[in-house]
Amino acid sequence: MTSEKKEGTPEQRDRMLQALEELLEITPTDVESAMGQVAQCVIELTRADKVDVFLFEPSTTTLVAVGTSDSPLGRKQKALGLDRIPVTNGGRTVEVFQTGKTWHHPRQDEDPDELVGIKQGLGVRSHIGVLIEVGGKPRGVLDVQSCTPDFFNTDDVRFLESAARWVGIVAHRVELGEALTKAALEQGRRTAAEELITVLAHDLGNHLTPMRIRLELIHRRAAREKAVPYLRDVEAAEQSLKALSQLISDLLDVGRLEQGLFTLQQYPVDLVALAEEVAQVASTPGKEVQLTGMQELVAQADPARLRQALANLVANAQKYSPVDLPVNIDVNRQQREDGAWALISVKDQGPGIAPEVMPRLFERFSKGPGSKGLGLGLYLVRSIAEAHGGTLTVRSELGKGALFVLALPLIEE
């Protein structure tokens, strides 16, 4: 329920902006102190009678006020034991947590579904409740209450929805800090890297089209004037631009995977023909790619994504293979207990993969010592395989190269 009160004044909006800036400046050391600072900041802005930051406690299925404003109503709430709300008790705060929908009632005492302790014990008349998400998951509620009817307006609602997002960020930072483990810190760095890199990839992508058009114009002019040195230079620049475009595409695919937007367009694909195409494009003097296996093998797949996966595997193999030693692609069929599978293997004759690298080989931004690049290729290949219902595995011994096997289920009539 949302009250249709008039908008706030410019002075109120200025105070809201100032409060958001103060929220950003909070340096958390632990959850309770950070959430206490948040509650105090919000109450000073809204001039409410009480502000709570409730977080869900899974072990007791209870919403716990880990941060409460230092106010008479806040102290009364603790004395009455209303700073802990079991989910089974219901009430509007629990409803916000379960539905994710903002609650705004200007006459809370007239609400039959609110807890009696809130209406009578605390005397709450106006109430706004906003969901708090931490790491993209519902984790609690930012609750703001007043003993005065019709106290809040729509500007307050919008401000508190923004504030709740910052609370989630602050809580996330605290939890990462409290974990103090290598895994948690690594994940935090990766999350930050993904967000930053995805934004940068979008921005870089916007600049590629005019660059590509300009290079095409230079290419045509150089060809028309038969300026061989300029042709050579512009062709090299076009190759670099193509590599940059592929890198940006990989970066954006990582973002799509994280957001659940990675989709497939599947239809019958000849895996042998696709592998042959990839081998021909990838083969260069001293870095030949050879194809072996069946003459034809058709699977239901997204050819663009499968081509992307296989090209990544081949490029990875070429990077580690010695000059004049070929990379081999093998396409074959295997009958398993759960049905027929297509196996696309990529074998290099490089130094092999170090044992300490193997456990995190398919993780985002993972790469071995001395490796260049961002470490996204194998992560994307595995994600593409899994999106098709398949798998990506690797076998390797030091000094004996590496064998990657992309397995896809076959649908037989």
Provide a short characterization of the protein structure:
With 413 residues, the protein is of the alpha+beta class.
Description:
The chain contains eleven helices and 13 strands. With 413 residues, it is an alpha+beta fold. The chain has three domains: 10-176, Beta-Lactamase; 181-259, Helix Hairpins (Orthogonal Bundle), CATH 1.10.287; 267-409, Histidine kinase-like ATPase, C-terminal domain (Heat Shock Protein 90), CATH 3.30.565.10. Strands 3-2-1-6-5-4 form a six-stranded antiparallel beta sheet, sandwiched between helices. Strand 10 and strand 11 (339-347) form a beta hairpin. This is histidine kinase. Residues 199-412 form the Histidine kinase domain. It holds the Pfam family GAF.
- Main beta-sheet strand count, sense and barrel state: 6 strands, antiparallel
Q: Name the CATH class of the largest domain.
A: Alpha Beta
The number of strands is 13
- Secondary-structure-derived class: alpha+beta
Which CATH architecture of the largest domain is right?
Answer: 2-Layer Sandwich
Shape: elongated
The residue fraction in helices comes out at 40-55%
Trace the largest sheet across and list its strands: 3-2-1-6-5-4
Number of helices, where a helix is a run of at least 4 consecutive DSSP H or I residues: 11
**Which radius of gyration do the C-alpha atoms yield?**
29 Å
Number of self-contained structural domains: 3
**CATH topology assignment of the largest domain:** Beta-Lactamase
Low-confidence stretches: 1-7
Please, what is the average pLDDT?
A: 83
Find the CATH superfamily of the largest domain: GAF domain
Which series of helices and strands comes N to C?
HHEEHEHEHEEHHHEHEEHEEHEE
Strand content: 15-25%
State the end-to-end CA separation.
Answer: 55 Å
EC number: 2.7.13.3
GO molecular function, one term: phosphorelay sensor kinase activity
Catalytic activity: ATP + protein L-histidine = ADP + protein N-phospho-L-histidine
InterPro entries: GAF (IPR003018), GAF-like_dom_sf (IPR029016), HATPase_C_sf (IPR036890), HATPase_dom (IPR003594), His_kinase_dom (IPR005467), HisK_dim/P_dom (IPR003661), HisK_dim/P_sf (IPR036097), Sig_transdc_His_kin-like_C (IPR004358)
